[in-house]
Amino acid sequence: MLGVSALTNKALTSWLHGLPGIDAVGCEGRAAALSTRSIKTDAKAWAIDTAISMIDLTTLEGADTPGKVRALCAKAVTPDPVDPTTPRPAAICVYNDLVGIAREALGDSGIHVAAVATAFPSGRASLEVKLADTQDAVDLGADEIDMVIDRGAFLAGDYRTVFDQIVAVKEACGEAHLKVILETGELATYDNVRRASWLAMLAGADFIKTSTGKISPAATLPVTLVMLEAVRDWRDLTGVQIGVKPAGGIKTTKDALKYLVTLNEIAGEDWLTPQWFRFGASSLLGDLLQQRRKLATGVYTGSRDVTID
Predict the structure, then answer these.
(1) pLDDT single digits (tens) 83-130
(2) Distance separating alpha carbons of residues 11 and 159, to the nearest angstrom
(3) How far apart are alpha carbons 34 and 2 in whole angstroms?
């Protein structure tokens, strides 16, 4: 589309810095205004089910064990044992050495396995190591790869290196979808978030993702708004739809509904499916299940009445 594969870093830099600048005050004000929208009962029930179906249920700790991953998979397959109509999350997200465990535990449930790769969460490794990491996850059965960009290269203005690495990882993914993590908390400005979003899409990302969840701030509503504008404008320009995944710090139903309202208002209804929008979360599901039961029964259940993360 832009002949970007032939661009020098200087030309790529010029193009990315030619993107319209973002009014930070206006962006934050718009996000704040959207977060005050109220959702009525019927719409809320639909939104809760939609949010559940969009979750990448995640465990990314050094102490993760096969047993913990199997328990998380069991929770995904049967989120609410007393209500079989409860939707299932979209994916289980784990380190790549646990992909095989998740793949076996999920069986034919239809829930995807996502693996974090490319020297997650720092992204500080050679391209050869990143590609080997990706190939390992794919070989073990990952449906989706969540890669991290080299933020050091990006912040130094070496956009070509970031671009080339995304292209190479995308090729290594084969049929697996590629989510590119920008780690927006380290990018410092909304303009950088916009540039990183466009750079990832130019390089072939299937999704752009806010954060690893390992630093603060992780996902924020204004940053997600900027990314949603980017995928909307990208589709208007190219006809290609790209997904968005806010990850880290989204813990309550109230939080999730704010993101869905923003998604609908900024990108549009076409993104209101798990194919195009995900929540990276470990504790969000429990609160959504409690709120779902409240709508169905009229009373709140205790935390012990839903499965533990």
Answers:
(1) 999 999 999 999 999 999 999 999 999 999 999 999 999 999 999 999
(2) 10
(3) 34
Kind and range of the H or E element at 290? helix 284-297
Question: Hey, which residues does 95 pair with through a beta bridge?
Answer: 116
State the CB neighbour count (10 A cutoff) for residue 20.
9
**Strands, DSSP E only, in 81-202?**
91-95, 112-117, 144-148, 177-181
End-to-end CA distance of the chain: 44
Question: Band of the pLDDT at 308, cuts 50, 70, 90?
Answer: very low
Domain containing residue 274: CATH number: 3.20.20.70
Q: Name the residues annotated as catalytic.
A: 146, 209, 245
Q: 49, 87 in Cβ contact below 8 A?
A: yes
CA distance 292 to 182: 32
Q: Which of 275, 249, 251, 277 is nearest to 263 (CA)?
A: 277
pLDDT band at 258 (very low <50, low <70, confident <90, very high): very high
Dihedral (CA of 140, 145, 151, 153) sign: positive
| Total of domains in the chain | 1
Strand-strand pairing, 177-181 and 91-95: unpaired
The structure tokens listed for 287 are: 């609160």
Rounded to whole angstroms, the Cα distance separating 292 from 301 reads: 10
In this structure, the dihedral spanned by the alpha carbons of residues 143, 180, 90 and 256, taken in order and rounded to 10 degrees, is 170
Question: Which tokens hold the place of 248?
Answer: 């880290």
pLDDT of 300 over the 90 cut? no
CA distance 95 to 97: 6
Give the list of residues 6+ apart from residue 99 with CB closer than 8 angstroms, or none: 113, 115, 137, 140, 141, 142
Domain span holding position 110: 4-305
Phi, psi of 169 (to 5 degrees): -65, -40
